Amino acid sequence: MGNIEKLVNKEGFAFALSIDCEGTNFDKNLENNAKNLERLLRLNSKNNIYTILFITPYFADMLCKLNLVEKIKQYKVIFGLHIHPDNLPEEIKIHCPFINHEEKLLAAYSYEEQKIIIKHSMDYLYGKGINPIEIFRGGYFSMDDNTSKALKELTDINYESHNIYRKQYKVTKNLLTPVPVYAFDSNEELRLEYFSTEKLVQMLAEAIKDNKKALGITHSYLLDPEDLHYKRDNIAKDIHYRLKELIKVIKLYKQAIEPIENIKL
Fold this sequence. Notes:
Glyco_hydro/deAcase_b/a-brl, disordered C terminus, 265 residues, seven-stranded parallel β-sheet, TIM Barrel, Polysaccharide deacetylase
């Protein structure tokens, strides 16, 4: 059983964090952000929390250059494929002459075109030592039935993870098992950088109350607490601090249920 199956099959409330590990389209500070990844993985693993890394080819390349690929495998990590078709290395683009560099959405491409993009992106990640790859997320949450069909045909991936309320998510046939981001609508999702810490805690508390799985989301370009996105987007606290606040809530929840679980009938 893969790690993603352990997470999905767990009964009742569970929290995991997904990170879209972006390339040069969003991240002008790629090396420093990658260097701060282990800090977050260590925090989650210490608290028995899985981190799902949705990795683009450019981020995989940076992990490889920094000799981090094997190192991060010691943590509670699940590897996923993440694709922005407008931000692919030359080694992939050479096989995809049909790519329109103004088109940001994977689902805008045909089935055959998506197959080519997915195949060469998977091969690229494998070549950098990223394995096993257990789950998929499209850039901007872009995915359709052609994406599912191509992934099913080409890979061993059986899971996908998106905000299902986003208009870019156009899946109608569940060929892959969905592991959705915890969200109430297209905008209100458990995203570490979206809302105040108080709002995030409130959302997590709702998931606990309803006994639901809560898959959070954040982005690799915020791993470095000094990254320009914090000042530009007026984000008051870094994602490491915000994650710690959520973990405090989870610990309180576990302390509350532990005596009940330990009762012997």
